[in-house]
Sequence to fold (134 residues):
Amino acid sequence: MRHLRSLCLSSHHLILPDLEGLAFPPEHLKKLRLQRVLVKLPSWVCGLQNLTKLILSHSELKEDVFPMLEQLPKLRVLHLLFDAYIGKELACVSMEGFPQLQSLTLDSLPNLEESKGVEQGAMPCHAMPQESNH
Fold:
């Protein structure tokens, strides 16, 4: 699993199994898609230095994931879809956050009221968020 490049985890059950205890996180992973309730993003995700694309859907994350994800040096595409995040605010904490991000989609996140830092110079590659809360 260490040499895995792309991973999609989905579940017919409401909740994905606990991913925190993954013995050997796939360090060469470039694309990751997690579909279903996670509640909390596994801490090893922030160590995926080669990750270029991350899609989260139906995850129901309660904590702001931007502080963890903005440090991923090669992340170019980030999609938070269909209740991936159920909090009210997402905030870039660092002006150097998301150094390579080119595409940010925030779709069907009905509780989201504000995304801070996105308009204030964070994301040097100027990813313009596509927001929709239908």
The longest helix spans residues 66-69.
